[in-house]
Amino acid sequence: MRVSRRVGIIVAGGAAVLMLMTPFIATMDDLLAAAAQRFGLDAAVAFIAIPEARLVAALLNLFGIAASSSGATITVAGAQPVALVIGWNCVGWQGLVLLALTFVVGLRPQDGWEARLHIVLIGVLGTAIVNLARITLVAVLAADAGYYPAIFVHDWAATISTVVWLTVFWIFAQRWILGAEPEALVRT
To answer: Residue 7: in which H helix or E strand, if any?
Structure first.
């Protein structure tokens, strides 16, 4: 099976699992947050959420929307000023897990270490940027359109934007960084 097909299968399968889990995660958010705290995952989330909150507030200010951050909380001044907390399911860990799975099947041993390093760096950076853009969009929606549109985008846009990003990323990576597979490895 070609590498591009295996990556596509992982992206599609991961998207399906994430889409199926979204209603469960949204419904059981408090229970899962308590479990995450019990296992000490809240410290890891704070390690990621605080810089994310600062970056999102900076992005909002860059776009002319008054915002500030304190810890993992973003305060946005809009039609309805709102404070948003970046919690354990907001930091983007799902996208990084899916990205890691695509690395397992997409990076080939015969590819040079430099090409593989470029792929990993671009993948992680791109996934982080997509997540920051999603959080920024949620903040804008929460301040201007209200709670329900923001929650809808929070819950569903993460999966959709991650899948779109990974698809574009791997098309780019296979075409311009990794190149074609050697003829001996291509099977139909």
So the answer is: helix 3-27
